[in-house]
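Page 37, continued from 36.
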């Protein structure tokens, strides 16, 4: 039986079953102690939590890294899904965890650069409340429509003269920001319909509940290849190798460059030697052919940079996004 990428994501979700925890099976000398003990780090399991449901990009990236860390560090690395509030619930739990290296997480740039523009100051999660271990990869967004719609470009949407209902991956996400900026700049009357992730947004699009949707390329590539949906624009700075024939929003005259970037984090105050061990193990994982093939299979662009470079990237994103929202008078806050 041939499995598509979407099928693989469904299998991951099914494999999670009733519990959202996936534990890598101990083998070849891998330690499976439930918590750290005496001796050089690590002496027990390292839990990796995910602020999203099983099967999405962040979940799949976390699982791929967990397998590599387990191999390199010689301990079991369980993955625990804790979805909610675009990753904020998981982030706040990690923030209060013991800073000993036994709880770490892959986090999304949007949680720190876009979500604060859509929620109150009390609800916002701050980057300074975590220790950065290193950068991972970029996931690009694409605006898609059903093939039957006849739409091929952003200009085609404008020509309809109607209110365009657009699906996104949620409030305070890059998908929402990219869509809102595009429709505002294009002068297209539109209505935001947020979903909890790319999969439900894609399902809504295929079910004609929305006219178009902005989701991550990895979540839509199989439907694009199957010619069930058509890509109208990508929101990267340049065309991407996974969809080389699809023009960017900038090429179509709109100053919209938005992507999802992910990086590895630990609770504030985690010892430097522990972070170094985790970071070195991650780098070795990234260098394997298996992980490189994983990136290509899921349309991910590696940006495996230092913690200082991660912070610089996020600071630039936050400044740019806020300025654009202010410029165009856009609010990302959930409608009440």
């Amino acid at each position: 039986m041939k499995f598509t990428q979407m099928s693989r994501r469904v299998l991951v979700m099914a494999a999670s079953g009733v519990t959202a925890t996936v534990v890598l099976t101990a083998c070849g000398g891998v330690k499976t102690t439930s918590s750290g003990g005496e001796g050089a780090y690590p002496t027990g399991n390292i839990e990796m939590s995910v602020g999203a449901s099983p099967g999405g990009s962040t979940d799949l990236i976390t699982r791929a890294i967990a397998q590599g860390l387990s191999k390199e560090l010689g301990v079991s690395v369980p993955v625990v899904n804790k979805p909610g509030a675009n990753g904020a619930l998981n982030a706040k739990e990690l923030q209060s965890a013991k800073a000993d290296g036994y709880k770490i997480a892959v986090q999304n740039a949007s949680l720190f650069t876009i979500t604060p523009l859509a929620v109150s100051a009390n609800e916002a999660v701050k980057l300074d409340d975590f220790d950065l271990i290193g950068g991972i990869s970029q996931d690009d967004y694409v605006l898609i429509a059903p093939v039957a719609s006849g739409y091929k470009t952003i200009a085609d949407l404008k020509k309809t003269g109607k209110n365009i209902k657009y699906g996104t991956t949620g409030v305070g996400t890059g998908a929402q920001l990219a869509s809102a900026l595009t429709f505002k700049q294009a002068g297209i009357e539109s209505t935001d319909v947020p979903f909890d992730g790319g999969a439900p947004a894609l399902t809504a699009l295929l079910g004609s509940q929305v006219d178009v949707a902005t989701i991550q390329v990895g979540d839509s590539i199989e439907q694009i290849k199957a010619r069930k949906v058509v890509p109208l624009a990508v929101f990267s700075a340049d065309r991407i190798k996974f969809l080389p024939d699809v023009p960017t929003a900038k090429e179509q005259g709109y100053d919209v460059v938005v992507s999802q970037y992910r990086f590895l984090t630990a609770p504030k105050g985690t010892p430097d030697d522990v972070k170094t061990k985790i970071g070195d193990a991650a780098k070795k994982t990234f260098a394997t052919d298996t992980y490189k093939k994983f990136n290509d299979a899921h349309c991910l662009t590696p940006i495996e940079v230092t913690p200082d470079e991660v912070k610089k990237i996020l600071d630039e994103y936050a400044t740019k996004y806020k300025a654009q929202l202010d410029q165009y008078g856009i609010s990302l806050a959930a409608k009440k």
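DSSP finds eleven helices and eleven strands in the chain. Flag for discussion at group meeting. The longest strand covers residues 130-146.
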